[in-house]
């Protein structure tokens, strides 16, 4: 049987699958969109060219791997068989789900992708890799052409991805295969150990995924050139990570593409980091696209421009866009006003921090005030701490956001790289909610921290936000009472 010679539509595999359109062709196999005439649906059929030495074995290997895997980020195997319509030239074929959409290689021909898109599909791919790695399988050929971008047709802006082509996948620890003097894989995306023909482990897939994500953000190959030139380059130096990438990507991609396999993060840590990048990008997206309002009177709200806290000077509202400097000066003025509140308020804040640590099961909880150069601790649980430098800071990063800041592993986030809570106290998890006043100013944070990386369970973030509202309410009640009586106190510094 020769599909290319007779043309699509002329062959019926297993009296059921009719190839109708060539999708892709490689050195070992061709992929067709085919019609399942029994179930009346489109499928993808991969037909191996059995005439070349070793290709029957490649087909059997892929069949063995695919048959053992089921995951939402992998293209599922539906059926398989051997076509004997030409007895002297049998062909192995695999029947897989037909994914509506394009592959990442074609998508990148249009240029680099938005960080939010990359974070979304990178998260899918990392979850798929975690799944196959847990079953001792290494893909060995992570590249844009093997990433399918799914179009569900539901107007969902969330890009979704599936990993395909397990033709050269092997079980972890296998020696890198050499065929006719060539290392198996795609030169531009090989890990250094693949290039050297060393045993492959899940760390090899982490490296290749890092190169794919980097290319998706920049639109350029990290190691261009002819195969030998490309392979040699990664043995001598790491890929260049541009300092123009959005915050957080540099640390993650540098770690993923480290030359030494044991220096790369496990795929579980990559998932945690990508999840955080998704959250960060989603927060930016909502801040830009959320319904805007400008407060012009008591409780008034009018859709006009993106939400910004209103500047208040001598009780006069200024409903215009403040500059960053104006906003910061107005925020610091609010910090000064609320810092005069103490006494009973501080005792109540101490109870809130203890409650936050208990409810979210963390070792540490803090109420912080972010001043011009200092993060002051107003209440604490689980740690003896009075203040920190504002930069580099976790709480200072939290007050600049429109959404809570959650860092599931501080060891993988640049904002925590030199922070004392991380370097001296060994805290590996941070979740902070801004303490936002009724005027819209973030005074500081209610935050919880732990000494191990972790995720928040369902409802935990809502609990932390509710407790932050309690903190702000307590401060505002005391401030109102203080203003009504004309009492003044010096700013509290604890």
* SS-based class: alpha+beta
Average pLDDT reading: 78
Largest sheet: 6 strands, antiparallel
Shape: elongated
- DSSP strand content: 15-25%
Distance between the termini: 82 Å
Q: Kindly state the number of beta strands.
A: 20
Task: State the helicity in percent bands.
Answer: 25-40%
Report low-confidence residues grouped into runs of 5 or more: 173-183, 285-321, 488-494
Q: Please tally the helical runs, counting DSSP H or I stretches of 4 or more residues.
A: 14
Strand order of the largest sheet: 17-16-15-20-19-18
Radius of gyration: 28 Å
Task: From the structure above, extract its key features.
five-stranded antiparallel sheet; 494 residues; 14 helices; single chain; six-stranded antiparallel sheet; alpha+beta; elongated; 35% helix; disordered C terminus
């Amino acid at each position: 049987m020769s599909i290319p010679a007779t043309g699509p539509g002329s062959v019926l595999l297993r009296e059921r699958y009719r190839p109708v359109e060539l999708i892709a062709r490689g050195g070992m196999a061709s992929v067709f969109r085919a019609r399942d005439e029994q179930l009346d649906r489109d499928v993808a059929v991969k037909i191996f060219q059995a005439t070349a030495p070793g290709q029957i074995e490649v087909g059997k290997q892929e069949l063995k791997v695919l048959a053992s895997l089921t995951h939402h980020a992998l293209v599922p195997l539906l059926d398989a068989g051997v076509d004997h319509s030409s007895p002297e030239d049998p062909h192995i074929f695999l029947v897989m789900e037909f994914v509506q959409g394009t592959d990442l290689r074609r998508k990148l021909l249009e240029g680099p992708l938005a960080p939010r898109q990359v974070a979304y599909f990178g998260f899918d791919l990392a979850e798929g890799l975690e799944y196959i790695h847990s079953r001792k399988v290494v893909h060995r050929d992570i590249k844009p052409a093997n990433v399918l971008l799914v179009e569900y047709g539901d107007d969902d802006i969330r890009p979704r991805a599936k990993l395909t082509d397990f033709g050269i996948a092997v079980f972890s620890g296998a020696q890198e295969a050499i065929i006719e003097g060539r290392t198996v894989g795609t030169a531009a995306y090989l890990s250094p150990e693949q290039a050297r023909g060393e045993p492959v482990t899940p760390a090899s897939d982490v490296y290749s995924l890092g190169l794919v994500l980097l290319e998706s953000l920049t639109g350029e190959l990290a190691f261009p050139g002819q195969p030998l030139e490309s392979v040699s380059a990664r043995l001598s130096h790491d890929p260049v990570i541009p300092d123009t990438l959005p915050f957080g990507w540099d640390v993650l991609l540098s770690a993923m593409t480290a030359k030494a396999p044991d220096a790369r993060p496990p795929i579980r840590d990559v998932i945690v980091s990508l999840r955080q990048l998704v959250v960060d990008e989603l927060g930016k997206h909502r801040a830009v696209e959320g319904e805007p309002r400008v407060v012009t009177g008591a409780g008034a709200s009018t859709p006009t421009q993106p939400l910004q806290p209103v500047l208040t000077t001598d009780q006069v509202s200024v409903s215009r866009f403040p500059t960053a400097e104006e906003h910061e000066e107005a925020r610091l003025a609010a910090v000064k006003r609320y810092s005069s509140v103490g006494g009973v308020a501080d005792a109540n804040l101490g109870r809130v921090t203890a409650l936050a640590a208990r409810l979210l099961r963390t070792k540490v909880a803090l109420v912080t005030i972010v001043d011009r150069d200092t993060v002051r601790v107003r209440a604490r649980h689980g740690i003896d701490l009075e203040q920190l430098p504002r930069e580099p800071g976790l709480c200072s990063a939290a007050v600049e956001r429109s959404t809570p800041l959650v860092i599931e592993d501080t060891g993988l986030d640049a904002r925590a790289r030199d922070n004392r809570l991380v370097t001296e106290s060994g805290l590996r998890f941070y979740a902070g909610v801004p303490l936002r006043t009724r005027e819209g100013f973030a005074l500081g944070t209610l935050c919880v921290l732990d000494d191990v990386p972790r995720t928040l369970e369902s409802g935990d973030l809502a609990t932390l936000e509710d407790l932050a509202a309690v903190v702000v309410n307590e401060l505002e009640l005391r401030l109102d009472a203080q203003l009504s009586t004309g009492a003044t106190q010096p700013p509290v510094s604890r």
